[in-house]
Write a structure and sequence with these properties.
With 266 residues, this protein is mostly beta strands. 5% of the residues lie in helices and 38% in strands. The chain starts with a strand and ends in a 21-residue tail after the last strand.
Length: 266
């Protein structure tokens, strides 16, 4: 069985592309010469910067996949620092937020979000008054020797004291989308964290590690977490196990997806 991994190390306070333009015959191909596509004005969203492609305060999620192994696995990243695992089939959603004693904020809502795609990695530089004058940097890579991802979270500059970073992860249900989550075909929210995706997710924790059992019935999932193999009565369901690693000094708890609307709900 191929092993699946999710590494979440954290060192935060608590823890030349040459553009080529082509001209087409709009009547014959549906393309209009110049800055139009099918009669609609095109928008230059990304700009080259050395060997990177960069966008600041982009609005899209899950529009830049990262690939590592020679399988159907991918990490869905994008303009926003919200990620999803496609194992293939839905392997969960990950989001981030920060809290102080007086307020909280999802990182997706930060005032400044720079997304930089660099040779198979996603790099985010994040700034907002809620954390002070400094910045949070998230670097994400797909693993090359297993179906998984590894992430580094660090800070730069003056981060206010008392800032707490948290990560939410869940919603792995082994769902197969009609076109494997392709943009423009499957719903734009197919990789979002949804309460029904969390059904029969069972986490088992040890120091600095966890296993997530999912994809099968509740009885099969709980038995697997107890070390017992049982057969699911539905042949379309298949038990999956994902292994995660997180900072040993981090706190964790299980929360209901029905009540998580702001970071303070955590």
């Amino acid at each position: 069985m191929r092993r699946r991994y999710l590494y979440i190390p954290s060192v935060i306070a608590i823890m030349s592309i040459s553009p080529v333009a082509a001209q087409y015959n709009g009547a014959a191909t549906g393309l209009v010469a110049g800055n139009y596509w099918n009669g609609k004005e095109r928008e230059l969203r990304y700009r080259p910067d050395g060997e990177d492609f960069v966008i600041v305060n982009g609005t899209r999620k899950f529009n830049r996949a990262l690939y590592g192994t020679n399988t159907g696995f991918r990490v869905e990243a994008g303009d926003k620092p919200e990620f999803a695992l496609y194992m293939p089939n839905m392997g969960g959603n990950m989001q981030f937020g920060v809290m102080t004693d007086n307020e909280s904020k999802w990182i997706n809502d930060f005032r400044h979000i720079e997304f930089r795609y660099r040779a198979g990695s996603a790099i985010y530089t994040l700034k907002d008054p809620v954390i002070g004058k400094g910045e949070i940097i998230i670097t994400l890579l797909a693993m090359g020797d297993a179906d998984g991802m590894v992430m580094k979270i660090e800070t730069n500059g003056e981060i206010d004291k008392g800032i707490r970073l948290f990560t939410t992860y869940g919603g792995a249900n082994n769902k197969r989308f009609s076109r494997n989550g392709d943009l423009g075909v499957d719903p734009v929210d197919c990789f979002d964290l949804k309460p029904d995706y969390c059904e029969n997710n069972h986490f088992k924790f040890s120091e600095g590690r966890f296993n997530l059992y999912y994809g099968a019935s509740k009885e099969v999932v709980l038995a697997a977490a107890a070390g017992v193999r049982e057969k699911d009565d539905n042949p379309k369901r298949k038990l999956r196990v994902l292994h995660g690693v997180y900072p040993s000094k981090a706190d964790f708890k299980i929360v209901s997806p029905y009540v998580v609307t702001t970071p303070q709900d955590m």
